[in-house]
Each structure stands twice: as structure tokens, then as C-alpha cells.
Automatic annotation (TrEMBL):
InterPro entries for this protein: Methyltransf_25, SAM-dependent_MTases_sf
Organism: Natranaerobius thermophilus (strain ATCC BAA-1301 / DSM 18059 / JW/NM-WN-LF)
Name the record gives this protein: Methyltransferase type 12
Gene3D superfamilies: S-adenosyl-L-methionine-dependent methyltransferases, Vaccinia Virus protein VP39
Metal-binding is among the record's keywords: no
Residues forming coiled coils: none
Keywords: Methyltransferase, Transferase
Any Pfam family: Methyltransf_25
SUPFAM superfamilies with a match to the protein in the record: S-adenosyl-L-methionine-dependent methyltransferases (SSF53335)
Domain Methyltransferase per the UniProt entry, residue ranges: 43-142
GO terms (BP aspect): methylation
GO molecular function terms attached to this record: methyltransferase activity
């Protein structure tokens, strides 16, 4: 099995993460409606990857503009090709940029950051910079919805999830493992394994990748939101889209959570 960055293979990454987004998008639209006191017409997506949300959102609501950015040039090119294929060029676009330094002069009604993409920012000062830069381009009373998973209350051995997706003659099997958590340095050590069977191109291969990510502790998160000076945490939702009691312990056992931040 060879070592390679899975983000350099956008076609197969896109298939691996191609589950149905309809229920999640209905949930997001409901959160927009409940918490934004004006019509949501434009959206920013940091670390947008293959552009799945950018392309799916217009199927459920009319938007005037949807902008994404990603650090990986392969992802950017792939996303823009998909946008052209779906004839969404008039409203959607993806640029190359990173979450720490990206700035926009225009104002967005809201921003979304899904599947713990923000976890690739590991240092407090860089996370704060990201929140401040993003906050500056989100309108007052707009939202920033961030999906991430917190540290486990009890971590005794590696934990993993496996799944398989298929599209047009290509099958992709994934295994994603959380190998260890370093609470002292606030780091989560993770790995991924991808197995691809591409019948059209008569290819079969396996790759693995290592991921050093931020270990999110809820108290740290709240402090970072507050220190940004631009966002206030107003609610948290679980993977079943049910609101979470923020006065209770928030931990990794709860899975990926949606943190709803209000621009103040």
C-alpha cells in the first residue's frame, strides 16, 4: 500500500464522500431560516474540497452567489469543472486559498465548514486568525456553521469507521481511523486508507494517508469563539440534527456536531 495524499485524487475522494446530502441540506436551510433575520442569498465555504455542498445547495434554494475555496489545486480544478458541468458558473466558483489567510472584500450572509475540515488548523493563533478573517466577510447577524468532532471523554484504543461508495463503474472503499489523542498538545492523530477499483480505466490500487489534526476540547472552542470577537456560539446540533444541551459535557462520543456561530 503506497503513501499518498487522498486530497490529490479528487475524483475518487468525491466518490468516497458521495453520500446523499438532502437531509443535511434541509437541516441547514432550517437553521438559516430560524437564525438569520434576512434572506440568505450568498454563501461562503472554506475548505470546500470537491464542491459537493456548493453544487447541491442550489437544488434546494435560489442563491445569487456561492463561493468556495480550497488549498489543494487539484480539488479547485475538479470543483470548477463540476460547476461548469452543472452550468452553475453564474453563481458558483472555487478559488485556491487557505483557511488561515483567506480574506474576501465582499460580504456573505453565511459560511459553512463541513466534516471537520477546520481540524486541519492546529494552532490557536491560526484558528483565531481564521475566525477573524471569516467573521470579517460574514454580515452582522449572519452565521458560520462549523461541523467538527470533539475529544473523546475516554480514549483507550484506536477507533475507526469503514464505508464503501460506488459510481459509474468505480468502487471506493474507505477506512478512517483515529489512532490517538494528545490532550496536552491538543492534537488528534488520524489515518485514512482508500481502496479503489476503477473498472473503466482497468485500475485497482490502495493508498494510505496520515492526518495530524486539532484535538477539539469544548472549553477551548468556546474560548476561541469568544476571543475572535466576531462570533457567538448560539447552538449545537448532533448528527441526527437534534439540538444539544450546551450545559452538559460535549465530547467525541457524540460524533460530528454542528456548531452554529452568530456574527456579532
Amino acid at each position: 500500500m503506497k503513501k499518498e495524499d487522498i486530497y490529490n485524487l479528487p475524483k475518487y475522494y468525491d466518490i468516497a464522500f458521495s453520500w446523499d446530502l438532502s437531509e443535511e441540506i434541509y437541516f441547514l436551510l432550517d437553521v438559516f431560516k430560524k437564525n438569520v433575520p434576512f434572506e440568505v442569498n450568498n454563501v461562503l465555504e472554506p475548505a470546500c474540497g470537491t464542491g459537493r455542498y456548493l453544487i447541491e445547495l442550489p437544488k434546494y434554494k435560489n442563491f445569487s452567489k456561492i463561493v468556495g475555496y480550497d488549498l489543494n489545486p487539484e480539488m479547485v480544478e475538479y470543483s470548477n469543472d463540476k460547476i461548469k458541468d452543472k452550468r452553475l458558473q453564474e453563481i458558483a466558483s472555487v478559488a485556491k486559498d487557505d483557511m488561515i489567510t483567506a480574506k474576501f472584500s465582499e460580504q456573505f450572509d453565511l459560511a459553512i465548514n463541513m466534516i471537520n475540515s477546520i481540524g486541519y488548523i492546529t494552532k490557536d493563533e491560526d484558528i483565531l486568525q481564521h475566525f477573524r478573517n471569516t467573521g470579517e466577510c460574514v454580515k452582522k447577524d449572519g452565521l458560520y456553521i462549523v461541523q467538527l468532532n470533539c475529544a473523546y471523554s475516554s480514549f483507550e484504543k484506536p477507533m475507526f469507521v469503514e464505508w464503501e461508495m460506488q459510481s459509474q463503474g468505480t468502487k471506493v472503499k474507505m477506512k478512517w481511523t483515529i489512532n490517538s489523542e494528545d490532550r496536552k498538545n491538543k492534537l488528534s492523530y488520524q489515518s485514512s486508507k482508500m481502496e479503489v477499483i476503477d473498472i473503466d480505466k482497468d485500475k485497482k490500487f490502495k493508498i494510505e494517508d496520515e492526518h495530524v489534526m486539532r484535538l477539539w476540547l469544548f472549553e477551548d472552542l468556546k474560548n476561541l469563539f469568544q476571543k475572535s470577537g466576531l462570533f457567538k456560539l448560539i447552538s449545537i446540533y448532533d448528527k441526527e440534527f437534534k439540538e444539544v444541551n450546551m450545559t452538559k459535557e460535549i465530547n467525541g462520543e457524540m460524533g460530528n456536531l454542528y456548531f452554529v456561530l452568530k456574527r456579532i
